[in-house]
Amino acid sequence: MGALNLALEEGGPRSLELRWGSNWRDLEITLDDEPVGAVADKLQLEQGVEFKLPDDSVLHVQLLHVPTPELRVLRNGAPLPDAASDPVQQVRTATFLLYGLAAFSVGVAMVSLVMTSKMRQQLPVSASNLLFGGVLAVLGFFMFKRWRAAPLLAILLYSFDTLSTLYVALTSEKVGGISALTGLVIRIFIFGALGKGFLGARELARREKQPLTAAPPSLGPAVAFPEA
After folding, report:
1. How many C-beta atoms lie closer than 10 Å to residue 193's C-beta?
2. How large is the C-alpha radius of gyration of the chain?
3. CA distance to 37, 118, 125, 132, per residue, from 121 (Å)
4. Which of these, 23, 60, 176, 192, is most buried using a 10 Å CB contact count?
5. DSSP string covering 90-146, please?
6. pTM of whole model > 0.85?
């Protein structure tokens, strides 16, 4: 079961509601409590469906796996505000992620220093965690400024961290397979969010250079329209 409420335009009321059952089945779409359309089959939703709204605009809904399932909701080819495919939301998510990871890294470093009884051995590790957190915080700031290189640098940084973690997991007897696998899964989610942050920043930069009169890209022929 799930629900999503979105506005058709920036600052507008969240009058568009999408509700679905288990495993993304039986999707129902309403606008101002009036039915717009429904999709019963998950496979059809993954292929993408389109519905005509009362103002003759076209609503496109598609289930994506990037890497977690999310709904791509477009109106006349443009993402709706605060939707998962909205570039502003993608940049915001990547920014919060980098700040959160920075805070976590700094917190781990400080707790380790307080809890350890071997200060000399722990100090280099905590210092590296503090440095790592500081770099992530700086990248988070530039991500907030929509600097496209920030998520790429973060991906590069976490790629190195992932490779070093995998090396330790494969060569150390103290690291369990489950914990290493969990860390790898978490990093996949991090890579996904940072990748979408880069795409969002690139799209926003493209919009700034694009004339205001330019039309959004076409999605092609509609897959499904509700019957009149």
Report:
1. 20
2. 22
3. 63, 6, 8, 18
4. 60
5. HHHHHHHHHHHHHHHHHHHHHHHHHH-S-HHHHHHHHHHHHHHHHHHHHHHHHHHTT
6. no
Residue 18 β-bridge partners: 4, 29
Measure the CA–CA gap between 131 and 209, rounded to whole angstroms.
36
Ranges of each domain in the chain: 2-79, 87-209
Count the Cβ atoms, other than its own, within 10 Å of residue 63: 20
Sign of the Cα pseudo-torsion (176, 177, 180, 186, in order): negative
3-state SS assignment for residue 19? strand
**pLDDT tens digits, 168-212:** 767 766 555 566 677 778 888 899 899 999 999 998 888 888 765
- Beta carbons within 10 angstroms of residue 58's beta carbon: 16
Q: Which of 139, 136, 140, 111 is nearest to 125 (CA)?
A: 111
CA atoms within 13 A on the CB side of 113: 13
